[in-house]
Amino acid sequence: MKKIKVKAYAKINLSLDVLGKREDGYHEISTIMQSIDLADILGFEKSDTIEILCDNPKVPVGEDNLIVKVINLLKEKYQKKEGILVRLNKKIPLAAGLAGGSADAAATIVALDKLWNLNMSKEEKKEIALKVGADVPFCLEGGTKLAKGIGEIFENLKVPSMSLLLVKPDIEISTKEIYDKWDRLNFKSHHATFLVAQAIQEGNIYKIAENIKNDLELVTSRECEVINQIKEELLKKGALGCAMSGSGPTVYGIFDDLERLKRAYEDLKEVYSFVFFSKTIDKGLELYE
Ligand code: ATP
């Protein structure tokens, strides 16, 4: 095999409780992560050098790219001399709280496992994933998961299919800065994860929508008033519930009425730079040969 294509799906957080800071600097969280139908497309081709060709000039293509981090970790671990050419068709907005970079990193692990015949076990893939970032292990598996620790200890959940409207205001957020401010501001967690997990187990989309909540919203919305504005607009336009994803700034609403969702989409796309109609899906990656 010389080439492989991977579709790498974004995620949203149906809940995010920040429980404390660990000695290694990471935060202990309890969160429900959900794959959604919004994906980057990555083409991998065997090559002598490492090169990333991306259609979005804002994406770093050197050592800072999580794809390059994965390539270098795998080269070192498996003593590989060759490089790889990656064509990255970027559809997931950057620094949006949707784990775009992490999804690309997960795609790189599975692609190189195949192209370089590494025969990696599930544990070996997860180990590399965790070295690259806290969201990468989730992106390898995808679906709906209750995640604990720094986001790497999973319990599988099965969510009823839900239609979503994503709205991202034209600002980019640094995850690290938001967590640093969380620590300084001494906020208390809402502990929403338990309630959302219960609603998911009952298969009740109304109860899910009523309970979705993200602790980090307290920090991000302090600086970006637009987060609360988008939430109000989504609710006014018929969303059953809404919340911010990750450290933001993307906000999503859950809808049970497609006509209302379409109207909300038409109205909001006049105002915000990224408005996307999506749905929940049960996988994180899709491979094509
Ligand atoms: P998370 O939800 O996991 O916190 P995010 O969606 O908020 O992540 P990303 O889109 O992953 O954020 O990007 C954050 C920064 O990481 C970008 O601004 C960019 O500089 C850098 N980056 C590194 N690799 C990638 C990649 N493959 N795609 C996009 N950004 C990348």
Describe the structure.
With 289 residues, this protein is of the alpha+beta class. The chain folds into two domains: 3-157, Ribosomal Protein S5, domain 2 (2-Layer Sandwich), CATH 3.30.230; 163-279, GHMP kinase, C-terminal domain (Alpha-Beta Plaits, 2-Layer Sandwich), CATH 3.30.70. The chain is built from ten helices and twelve strands. The strands form two sheets. Strands 1, 2, 3, 4, 5, 6, 8 and 12 form an eight-stranded mixed β-sheet that branches. A hairpin with a 6-residue loop joins β9 and β10. α1 packs parallel to α2 and α2 (100-115) crosses α3 (122-132). The longest helix has 16 residues, at 100-115. The chain is globular and about 55 Å long. The mean pLDDT is 95. The site of adenosine-5'-triphosphate (ATP) has 20 residues, from α1 and α2. Belongs to the GHMP kinase family. IspE subfamily. It is an enzyme of class 2 (transferase). Residues 197-272 form the GHMP kinase C-terminal domain. Catalyzes the phosphorylation of the position 2 hydroxy group of 4-diphosphocytidyl-2C-methyl-D-erythritol. Residues 65-143 form the GHMP kinase N-terminal domain.
Summarize the structure.
With 289 residues, the protein is of the alpha+beta class. The chain is built from ten helices and twelve strands. The protein has two domains: 155 residues, Ribosomal Protein S5, domain 2 (2-Layer Sandwich), CATH 3.30.230.10; 117 residues, GHMP kinase, C-terminal domain (Alpha-Beta Plaits), CATH 3.30.70.
Order of helices and strands: EEEHEHHHEEEHHHEHHEEHEE
| Shape by Cα distribution | globular
Name of the CATH first level of the largest domain: Alpha Beta
> For the report, how would you describe the main beta sheet?
8 strands, mixed
Mean pLDDT: 95
Helix count equals 10
Heterogens: adenosine-5'-triphosphate
In percent terms, what proportion of residues is strand? 25-35%
- Which structural class is indicated by helix and strand composition? alpha+beta
